[in-house]
Write a structure and sequence with these properties.
The complex is a heterodimer of chains A (379) and B (336). Chain A has 379 residues and is mainly alpha-helical. Chain A has helices at 14-36, 52-64, 67-77, 87-108, 129-148, 150-155, 159-189, 207-233, 240-267, 279-299, 301-305, 307-331, 345-368, 374-378; strands at 4-5, 372-373. Chain A is 69% helix and 1% strand. In chain A, strands 1-2 form a two-stranded antiparallel sheet. Chain B is built from 10 helices and 12 strands. Chain B is globular. Classes of the chains: A mainly alpha (379), B alpha+beta (336). The interface between A and B is large, with 79 and 86 residues.
Amino acid sequence: MSTAAPLRRSLVTPTTLVLVALVVIAFCFLLQRFLFGLGAVANINPGYPWGIWVVVDVIIGTAFGCGGFAMALLVYIFNRGQYHPLMRPALLSGLFGYTLGGFAVIFDLGRYWQAYNLLLPWHAQLNSVMFEVALCVMAYVVVLWIEFSPAFLERFGFVGIKRILERWMFVIVALGVLLPTMHQSSLGSMLLVMEYRLSPLWFTLWLPALFVISALAMGYAVVMFEATVVSKTFSLPSEHALISKMSIVVGWITVAWLVLRFGDLFARNALPLAFIGSISVFLFWVENAMFLAAALVFITPAGRASQRASFLGAVALLAGGSLYRLDAYLIGYQPLNNWSYFPSVPELMVSIGVVALEVLLYLIFIKTLPVLHGDAARR
Amino acid sequence: MTEVDRRDFLRGAGFATAAAAVPTEASAAIARPPKQISPQAVGMLYDSTLCIGCRACVAACKEANKMPAEVPATLTGWNENTWDSAEDLSGRTLNVIKVYRNGTAEQKDHEINGFAFVKRHCLHCIDPSCVSVCPVGAMQKDAATGIVSYDPDVCIGCRYCVYGCPFGVPQFDFSSALGKIAKCEFCRHLQKDGKIPACCDVCPTGASLFGPVKELEREIERRTAAAPGTPYQFPRGKIGENRPPNAATIPTYVKGVYGEHEAGGTQVRYLAGVPFPKLGLPTVGRQSPASLSEGMQHTIYQWLIAPLVAFVGFAFLARRNLALHHDDDAPPSKEG
């Protein structure tokens, strides 16, 4: 029936043990946070009320979770069925990117015990971009679990439920493309209120478009990155032929992003600001160089043909997209009263723990559920 | 008392060229229409030239709002929580007086070799960002008085208001496991009983003056129209109230009224003898940030038409394409 199969490998390995240790450390610091307040663990302050728990775990983390969104768009909306073998691993990474992003929100919220107010209609605040993001992300987490559920249903033999689900899957797939389009663009819109606090190198009316396009590009990059890492780690046959074909799409999406980014800077006369010596300007160039490097790899036949170059291109795209988000939310932002911010060690350990949990769950799932392309996994 | 940070205003000034006072055409086109001030709006006039830096307002604020004293780490050696020395707004300080100093600091209200005081607290924007960004409506603006209030029982602690306020006003108390947002609410609990905000009530010189914004605007006109040196009866407490005024002379004001246009206008206004950026007041353009972000959001999501159309389109294509594969794990299609 299904061509996907669980990977027959041991669950307990040195890697998984290290991951478990990192998760345990993170939970210890989280306990401290819940007992003594955010300030006891994180370096966030009046000038930087949002730190890496928001920007890395949620803003960047959900962009890393866009693999399912990007692949669903390609496979089901643009009918490129040949990429279907990449679909389930992509959904799985999306599942954890988003579920853990939502989890990270809870421990970052200062008054988490009242978080349910987001769901009470009489507290709904329709002018708030964050309200829209919160509802869309919550809905999308549910959508991702449903999209991924055939893997469970197959594993445990619930054929009847799977058949009913398949009949309605088109609704779930449509939501799985619509919701990320909405909230990934809104993560850019969330900065529109920062007109007087955000450097013109990042503040633009095109923020929603720049965020959603780069999220899409990062979604494909995650899929490429994972496929390569998984096939190398478990010495499975390479998916490079498939990835190489897909990368031309990614290349042109990246080019479109760069054209919009620089066209807008030029039109707004903001480019001269990119030639003033400062850390944020330096990072502006690093961020764009990453996008450019990825674009060059993916639009040239030689770049696409080389497995190493493609892998590095995907890494550059993920790094560039992450840095773009970090810059827009923290580095290009001018705090009042001269506050500065650098994450504390416990703060970093919590974010690292979230990533470790993500990788750990990914490994457990591919080893116990039919996720990876069957022919490869069964070997 | 903390000194206004010099790097802060340098930074602000550098930024001012970019954040133009007048919004660009594109941003004005997307922004929703600006909000208008309520005819019954109450506000405050802070005249920096009248302020003597006694900080009676800071102490009165703490008392009226039951906030604890703050002692900076450097002073804990001798100050055992008996003397509040808040340096800036924080999760435990709603109102603070800061000082500007230059050179020999000899003359009050002089930019060069002078000093000046500045009071910082919520400006009660006409179109507040904090109200616009709050996902659960914990920040509300009263339709009549225009007071921007906060409800800790609704707040989820996301701190978007702290991040989004162009004036850096709302503060989250990071030091508590059950922290909440702190911001000046114009002592609305006192106003309910017919009293005025504690800071204006105790101000000995009338530097902090409470009253309807309309009347405060007329008072500003009278002060700025009079020639420097003219004897003047500065009202104290609440404008129009029969409290004995402070008899002094009209100082030399710098041009402009801070708060008249900033971020779409505020209900707190400042007059000063030293340029506002030097007092650490952020340089903020005229367009309210809320009007731009709400304008964009409601353009994209008007009546949810665009998302619905996209959903129907996606669903149609997904249904067709899934049917082509029959099974969700069917072999690859020939296309592409």
